[in-house]
Amino acid sequence: MKLDQSAALLARAQQIIPGGVNSPVRAFRSVGGTPPFIARGEGCRFHDVDGNTYIDYICSWGPLILGHRFPPVLDAIRDVLDVGTSFGAPTEREIELAEEIRAAAPSCEMLRLVNSGTEATMSALRVARGFTGRELTIKFEGCYHGHVDSLLVKAGSGMATLGIADTAGVPPGFANTTLALPYNSVEALEAAFRERGDQIAAVILEPIAGNMGCVLPSPEFLAALRALTQKHGALLIFDEVMTGFRVAFGGAQQLFQLRPDMTTFGKVIGGGLPIAAYGGRADIMSRVAPAGNVYQAGTLSGNPLAVSAGLAMVRHLKAHPEIYTQLNEAATRICAAGEGVEGVTINRCGSMFTFFFHPGPVNSWDDAKSCDTARFRDFHRHLLERGIYFPPSQYEAAFLSAAHDAEAVETTAAAISAFLHP
Ligand code: KE4
Question: Which of 190, 227, 265, 381 is in Cβ range 3.0-4.6 Å of 277 for a Cys bridge?
């Protein structure tokens, strides 16, 4: 593969941007080689500065569920440019987006728009502490909820990828407010509530984990989460930044028919522009300033440009529910290429999936962290050289879009088979 231009850009970028990237996972540290610098995207593909073309399974880490440069989203952005990009004042369209999100996830009786998933989870935790008057949070090992100080404890995504157990720069006092438990462990959850139940403000989790690779919750785990938080007066927060509007229009809470107390959203609701949201029961959210005494703010929160892109995407998905069937079928076809291969475990929910190089099962971070990452690296390189861009980490989920046509899916399945069935 010719990556000369990317290599030159990486060297230049590293002079001014840490690691040469604006988010660590993009650096390809765990898979090696030069990360392609992307010049443009179109549908299910993007093209790098050296002229290489890739079928994209990052989809901007989830947002582009309709593919690159989806025309209705671009049209919505063009239209709003005629009126402005940001006012720092309320607008009607941010009410419309909030109403669309509530219609999709009725547990969010009230919600607020912010600019990133990190902001959403940070704000949700603050509201949970303010509402309960308690300080402790439970999270789960391998889950990633953005780079919130108190949540960078045994986190997934880029931290797992880089092998950073816990980041520097977070005072022990912050980290000590978080209990990190094994995902899917009912007994660990019961023990934590038995010992400190009256101090726990909230339990936050990825209802389907994507940041240790794709890991699904057991029904018993979900039931225990809901029952124990209710019993002890703690809030259950579903971090649906990744799963919201991805695994189903109503997210994981629709799939599981489970009503959390609060939810965070991001990615898809911005249509590829920076938007996220946090919301939940009205009695909880009414504590947010200026209605209540928990402060949270944002210069560009609800800006017309990002809201218009998000509205166009969410409304298209609402009008075309068949997209989710199409996404599931395409993902099933791709994952079938790896079924029954020794040492490979495939976890999937809807159009997010991970090929774990592990005999299986993979139900927790302890399982995931024992993957054969060297073999994953070879798998990733094999695909990249064939124009298929999988997430550059064993501890991330791959994403499909509605733009992944039969040709892209079959090309991908064939390349996977060629590696796994040499
Ligand atoms: P952002 O602050 O990156 O918008 O969202 C943080 C976040 C919160 N919650 C969940 C469940 C998430 O998956 C994320 C961010 N996801 C990663 C992908 N694993 C973003 C990619 C990156 O960090 O570059």
Answer: 265
